[in-house]
C-alpha cells in the first residue's frame, strides 16, 4: 500500500491550519516535518517546524513523520519526544560512526517512535545496509536536502531499486520513503522503483484539489 507524507515546510503561516485540515481531509497519511538546523543544511527551520508540529498534533490525529536534517540528532529526538511522532528519521551523514548510529536508533525506539534512516543523493546504500534489520524505514533523498521545490534527481531512483532488491533478497521488512520532487508524474517512477511512502510538498500545497492530488500519487 502506498502512503503519502505531506511536507508542510512551505506552508504560509496565515493559512497553515486551514491547509493542514485540507491535507488531512485529502487523505494524506502523515505530516512530514522537515527539521533543519542551519548546520547540517544551510536553512534553519527549527522554530517554524516545532510550531507546525505542535499545531498539527493539536488539530489532527495523523502521525508526525519527523525528518531530522540536523547535526545534533540526540537533542532533537529529545525535543520531539513529547509529541510522540510516528516516525523519526535521522541522516547517516550526521551520525557518521557505528557506535553513535546504533545509539540513536535505540534512543528513537525508547521513546516509542518508529526509526527511519536517511541517505542523501551522494551517499551509497552500502553505508546503511548493516542497520536495516534494526530500523523501520529508509528515506532516500531524491533531491539535495535543505530546500523545497526541487526537481527529482533521476539517478536517485536507481538507488531505490538497488535498495528494494537488497531488502527482498535478505527478507528484511522495511519501508522505503522517497523525498523530493514528487508529483503526479514522478510518483509512478518512484513506486515502480520500490518506494511505498512518498513525501510530497509543493505539489499538494499548491493543488486546487488536494484530495485528487493525493489520489493521483497513491494510484500512480
What is the level 1 CATH name? Alpha Beta
Helix content: 25-40%
Task: Assign an overall shape.
Answer: globular
Mean pLDDT: 96
Query: What structural class should be given to the helix and strand makeup?
Result: alpha/beta
DSSP summary, beta strand count: 8
What would CATH call the homologous superfamily? Answer: Aldolase class I
Task: Give an account of the 3D structure.
The protein is of the alpha/beta class. The protein has one domain (3-218): Aldolase class I (TIM Barrel). Helices cover 38% and strands 20% of the residues. The protein has helices at 16-25, 46-59, 73-80, 92-95, 98-110, 156-169, 186-193, 202-205, 210-218; strands at residues 3-7, 30-36, 63-69, 87-91, 114-119, 137-141, 175-179, 197-200. Helix 1 (16-25) packs across helix 2 and helix 6 (156-169) runs parallel beside helix 7. The radius of gyration is 16 Å and the shape is globular. The N and C termini lie close together (12 Å).
Summarize the model shown.
The chain is an alpha/beta fold. The protein has helices at residues 16-25, 46-59, 73-80, 92-95, 98-110, 156-169, 186-193, 202-205, 210-218, and strands at residues 3-7, 30-36, 63-69, 87-91, 114-119, 137-141, 175-179, 197-200. It has a single domain (3-218), classed as TIM Barrel.
Amino acid at each position: 500500500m502506498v502512503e503519502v507524507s505531506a511536507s508542510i515546510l512551505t506552508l504560509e503561516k496565515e493559512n497553515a491550519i486551514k491547509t493542514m485540515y485540507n491535507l488531512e481531509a485529502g487523505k494524506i497519511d502523515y505530516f512530514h516535518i522537515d527539521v533543519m538546523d542551519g548546520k547540517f543544511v544551510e536553512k534553519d527551520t527549527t522554530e517554524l517546524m516545532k510550531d507546525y508540529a505542535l499545531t498539527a498534533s493539536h488539530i489532527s490525529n495523523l502521525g508526525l513523520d519527523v525528518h531530522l536534517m540536523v547535526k545534533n540528532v540526540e537533542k532533537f529526538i529529545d525535543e520531539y519526544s513529547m509529541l510522540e511522532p510516528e516516525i523519526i528519521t535521522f541522516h547517516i551523514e550526521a551520525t557518521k560512526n557505528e557506535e553513535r548510529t546504533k545509539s540513536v536508533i535505540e534512543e528513537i525506539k525508547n521513546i516509542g517512535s518508529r526509526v527511519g534512516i536517511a541517505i542523501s543523493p551522494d551517499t551509497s546504500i552500502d553505508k546503511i545496509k548493516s542497520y536495516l534489520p534494526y530500523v523501520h524505514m529508509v528515506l532516500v533523498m531524491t533531491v539535495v536536502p535543505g530546500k523545497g521545490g526541487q526537481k527529482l534527481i533521476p539517478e536517485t531512483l536507481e538507488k531505490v531499486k538497488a535498495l528494494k532488491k537488497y531488502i527482498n533478497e535478505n527478507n528484511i521488512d522495511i519501508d522505503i520513503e522517497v523525498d523530493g520532487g514528487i508529483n503526479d508524474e514522478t510518483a509512478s517512477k518512484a513506486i515502480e522503483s520500490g518506494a511505498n511512502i512518498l513525501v510530497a510538498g509543493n505539489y499538494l500545497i499548491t493543488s486546487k484539489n488536494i484530495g485528487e492530488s493525493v489520489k493521483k500519487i497513491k494510484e500512480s
